[in-house]
Amino acid sequence: MKAKIRVRKSSLIDFTDVDAWVCFMPEDLKIEGDLNSAIIEAAGPELDEYIVDTFYKPKPGDVFHAPSFGAPVDHLFFAVIPEWEGGFNEEMHELSKCYRSCIQLAKDKGISDIAFPALGADKLKFPQSRAVRIALYAIIEEASSPLETVYIMCKDDKNYQAYVEKLKMLKEHRHW
Questions:
Q1: Is residue 86 classed exposed, middle or buried when 0-12, 13-18 and 19+ CB atoms within 10 A define those classes?
Q2: Which domain holds residue 66?
Q3: CA distance linking residue 83 with residue 54, whole number of Å
Q4: Do the Cβ atoms of 22 and 169 come closer than 8 Å?
Q5: Is 16 helix (H, G, I), strand (E, B) or coil?
Q6: 150 forms bridges with which residues in the sheet?
Q7: Is 32 helix (H, G, I), strand (E, B) or coil?
Q8: Of 22, 120, 149, 159, which sits 20 to 30 A from 34 (CA to CA)?
Q9: Helix residue ranges, H only, 15-127
Q10: What's this model's pTM, rounded to 2 decimal places?
Q11: How many structural domains compose the chain?
């Protein structure tokens, strides 16, 4: 059975009705940006120590599981994200792998609801249409039982509209 995909206009950190949050971080594992800083703050300093001690030689596309420590969800996934380099390297494949690997890990752990932040178009400099397409195709192809719902959390109108419109188009053309 395919999981439902829901797009919400909200920050990931404010959405606690899921089993897992997905966080994205750079290859150097620097905790930067509002979202990652808020997750570290919610989980507590043990999470930062866990990341440094446990995530060994990360490469773009890799996904790591961490306990939630003090965060209000049961699981935290950290996906190592690529930066846009014009589309001539492996960055599109690596971004897709981030989504696919997170979903597979969630299914392996019996998770029913997972939330991703909308990503790629801002700091990573992916063209927005590509970031949205990569995310939705990966989620549609991978999200199945025991996953029930995959949420994409958009903190701004531009990302929200892009995801809603692409998802609607995919439903109309029966890609999902």
A1: exposed
A2: 4-172
A3: 23
A4: no
A5: coil
A6: 5, 114
A7: coil
A8: 149
A9: 34-43, 45-54, 91-108
A10: 0.92
A11: 1
